[in-house]
Specification:
Elements (H helix, E strand, L loop, with lengths): L6 H8 L22 H4 L13 H12 L3 H18 L18 E2 L17 E2 L1
Antiparallel strand pairs: 1-2
Length: 126
């Protein structure tokens, strides 16, 4: 059965344990920083599936606080391995996206992250 619901009412149903919904479809705008904290931190604002792993929380917090990009990548790789092993959620579909840029745009690189065009730090037009 498909139900359309007011957003806060739907969130309240999702956060009820056990979760009464078998599946739901949501659309989010990505946060300013493209990271996993919102989805996979136990207190993440987008963690609608109730995932909680203290080690993942610790690594996500360290990753967000670290400026060294190599160290950050190492921490996030550990996070991804833990999340993959825990399999807290199974995504059934992932929308395709076509991104096009004018030839005048410089400094943009694909992020492998949906809605990556919102992360345009360092991008300029000539």
């Amino acid at each position: 059965e498909i139900r359309v619901s007011e957003f806060n009412a739907m969130l309240s149903r999702i956060r009820t344990r056990p979760n009464p919904l078998q599946a739901w479809v949501l659309w989010y705008i990505t946060p300013p920083e493209a990271d996993l904290l919102g989805y996979y931190h136990s207190q993440g604002t987008l963690n609608e599936f109730g995932y909680a792993n203290p080690e993942v929380d610790r690594l996500l917090e360290r990753g967000r606080a670290t400026f060294d990009q190599k160290e950050r990548a190492r921490l996030y790789h550990q996070v991804q391995k833990l999340i993959a092993a825990d399999a807290p959620v199974v995504y059934l579909v992932y929308p395709s996206e076509i991104q096009a840029l004018n030839k005048r745009i410089q400094g943009w690189a694909p992020m492998g992250y949906r809605d990556a065009l919102t992360h345009m730090v360092g991008v300029s037009a000539r």
